[in-house]
């Protein structure tokens, strides 16, 4: 299903002077949604740190991920200006939702906070992999950036797993709900 969708989307990419050019609409959607997602991510981890404290063991681990999210958002802030892409109108909502998600899962305990990380990073990581397929050679630089960020998100996902996320109470239900929320946010932020 996902593969079919990708093939359909890729077909809209055009060959210009022998280089397959990424469709402008696809490019805009990628930058818009990644900017929104990374902004949300820069709020989730501070939300969790506000509960655990930045000097706690887990707080330091989360801070490492937060620092990488900061790097990610700075890159997309740059791209949104350079490529003249309209940011999503829902940025204020993702700001609040991100922080609330981080703080509320942290209040349920360390394992639940890490379960949140596993769910969010899985969706973002998969989404980045899809985007890598959609970008053509004219966007080689962006492709490289997204590959690097996808590696960071995978690292975050694995940090969650290694911190016993899967033993959080109601792990399966909770991660499904968070994944669904993230996928919905992605679908909306591409367009609006
Ligand atoms: Fe990120
Ligand atoms: Fe991440």
Describe this structure in words.
The chain is mainly alpha-helical and 192 residues long. The chain has one domain (23-191): Ferritin. Helices cover 78% and strands 3% of the residues. The longest helix has 29 residues, at 24-52. It is elongated. One fe (ii) ion binds next to helix 2, helix 3 and helix 6.
Structure keywords:
192 residues, mainly alpha, Ferritin, two-stranded antiparallel sheet, 7 helices, 78% helix, 3% strand, binds fe (ii) ion
The strand count comes to 2
**What string gives the helices and strands in order?**
HEEHHHHHH
Average the pLDDT over all residues and give the rounded result.
Answer: 90
Question: What is the helical fraction, as a range of percent?
Answer: over 70%
Topology:
Elements: H1 2-10, E1 14-16, E2 19-21, H2 24-52, H3 57-82, H4 91-107, H5 110-134, H6 140-162, H7 171-191
Antiparallel strand pairs: 1-2
Bound molecules: fe (ii) ion (2 copies).
The gist of it:
With 192 residues, the protein is mainly alpha-helical. The chain has a single domain (23-191), classed as Ferritin (Up-down Bundle).
